[in-house]
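Entry 14. Structure prediction run on the chain below.
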Amino acid sequence: MSDNREIGKDGGEVHINPVVQKNNSSETAVMEEIKESSDTADAKKAFNDLVLENPTALQVKDLELTTHTLTMKEENVDETVDIGDESSQNKSKRNESLLNRAKGIGLIILAILMATGQGALTKYLKIIPTGELIIVTGVYTMLLFSLFITYHDIPLFSFPLKKVVFTRVMFSVVVKIVKVWSFQHLPLGDATALIFTSPLFACILGRIFLKEKLTLPHIIAMILGIIGIFMIAQPTFIFPGEESGPWYYNLVPILGAVSMGSAYTAQRKIGTDVNCITISMYMTIAGNLGGLGFQTISGDEYVNPRCFEHRPVMLLGGIISVAGLVALNKALQYEKAATVSLMRNLDTVLAFLLQVAVFSEPVEAFSLAGTALIMIGTLTLTISKLFDVSCGVTI
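Output returned:
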């Protein structure tokens, strides 16, 4: 039997009958239900009074609820759209970055092809003195650039970074003169090998002045490229052969390599602030002045090029020069100076292949091996640039 005792007010125990306790609990529950019903009735009465006093109150309340619901839905939609837009923007940026890398590599390859073609035309026109060839070809190049400048209204005098542009132009003139001097006074292999060490200086200068980082593919391409060039050119200071003259003659092509690396670094510094046509025009003018000076110093007699034999080829040389200059300067807007300089090692490969295919030069196993090394290095660098791969090594 359960203990139904409670403590009374006087501190004594009071016995409670279970039946009475049950009845009291029932009465309490009934009272609570009546109270709830009363509260509900009062709430309904107050609501009806509100509607009778202001019939539009219910509609206003419904309108507020509907507006709030629509606002919440719009916010959710906006968040969804924002997320979709962000994803679309990221995808668009990735595609644009890939397109820019492809443009840069394509322009470098075009510049390489134009340089190789210009070398072939120069060899074909070997009866024309060097200075005169530079001047006549340069005049055609200037005329073509003048058409571009006039048609597209490109500024020729009002542009920023004039000092940097002047530096870039002067270094290009030094490179042209050094190449001519080196090819005349040094064995071809020595001059080629030393001038095309320019990627080493481009990498160093770009890292110092432009803070351009070098990746593992850059290092691989540099090592393989320099080894390959030495194997193709076979300089006499490594391979036994004819005497190359005094040792300090070798400083001239090294100066050309430093100048080439400096020219690429200056062009990279200019970026897109100056139209590449403007820079190319000034490079052509400076090249013509350099050719005139060289022709004067060398004392070579001028040869009047024959109209139907030499001049069309020289005009073609001017067209190739325009395409090559624009492609090179434009490529340096997309790619690092080190990348452009390293890929220019393909000049040596294409020149070697051209000598074999067109001019019937003998082929040596050493030269073929060097060509393969340059191709492997350049292909490694190209793939790494297209897919933005650094292989975890950055300097």
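The radius of gyration is 42 Å.
Filed with the rest of this week's runs.
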